[in-house]
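Input/output pair, single chain:
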Amino acid sequence: MKSDNSFKTLLFATALLAGCEGPTEPTKERESLFEPDMAYSTELQVLSENTSVMNAMSSIEAHDARNILDLIELTEIPAPPFAEENRAAHFVGMLKEAGLSDVTIDEVGNVIGRRPGREGNRVLALVAHLDTVFPAGTDVTVRIDGDTYHAPGIGDNTRGLVFLLSLLRAMEAEGIETSDDILFIGSVGEEGLGDLRGVKHLFRDGGPQIDAFIAIDGGGNDGLIYGGVGSHRYKVTVAGPGGHSWGAFGLANPHHALGRAIENFADRAPAVTGIGPKTSFSIGRIGGGTSINSIPFESWMEVDMRSVDQAKLDEIDAVFRKAVQDGIDEENNARKDGAELTVDIKRVGKRPAGVGDPSSPLVQRAVAAMQAAGVTAKPSLSSTDSNIPISLGIPAITISRGGVSRRAHAPDESWTNTDSHIAIQVGLLLVLAQAGFEADKTE
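Output:
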């Protein structure tokens, strides 16, 4: 069954996100949205039975030992936020060794390798992010325990880069061609305050042509992220004269003002978060002040707000801004002496929200590719590099990198090599279907 009803799609997206209120569709209807049309199931089944494709699938399994060596090699090259250049430079060499001749690094640090198609009228981007969340100086030495590999960033998303290399090698080994050009991209700035800067740069005015987009992120073999959870992030800084806690008592206190603002926000936000598509907010960090016996001259907090619905995200954003300003005004009105406090609300991150269409060819082919590989797709919504193209109406999804990832973003992160070839085989089938593989060209 196909559905082109955008409201219905958003309603389903809402149901996938736990904790929301409001109407939901019956389970059978929800499941049917991700049943591929018979034409796509047949397309992927025929593709999976092609001799060249089967040989490429086998070669992916044969790459397992090489993939582990690549994983260790890349993991041990630090790629902290805003400093991915060493890993990027090394990845360029690996893409060239795997068979690409046209590989460059763009203005913001994205690695872009082009594999020309027979026609090249359309372009498919295959993307894994280079960066990790871990700061410079983090020990990224890989520790091996049987088939489990321990190191910060080893799963998220170094394994995604290995996915690209293995898929490319399989295509090169069998001389597989596609109609469309394929871009193999190591993106920068996916994590945290990187704010998707690499993919934002790709989709700038004057950027490279990209007609469809597949990101590699998340563990397992069955992940299918078809919509983007958007986020607005701010750093709020309240400033005042400051002074001695006893001698200057009566001055407006930035900490008190921030406390009033947080209370206002926490009280008012449920009017937005309690209904409709899931929307969240969190005060993630607070700081400021010089000593216990001082009225601080500065207080700051960092705030994260998220939703799958851009209108809801804009709504909670407006509530937040009003709550902060009211908190400042309340503290200024309560002061007995001195200058008023000032506030700076600085946006430090903006990821657009959007929900893809389950009936689109890219999503349908992804589900069918997983079926052909013996995997049942698990559709979900998340915040990944795909947020940007989805928000622009460009077909985009994020699929799994394979293996078992644990403790992502934690110092004790690990990745286990369990059936990890399957995700790459799924990726191969999907890429060939989307980029225009023709069996009679290679048989």
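Residues 57 and 78 are 31 Å apart (CA to CA). Confidence is low (pLDDT under 50) at residues 1-30.
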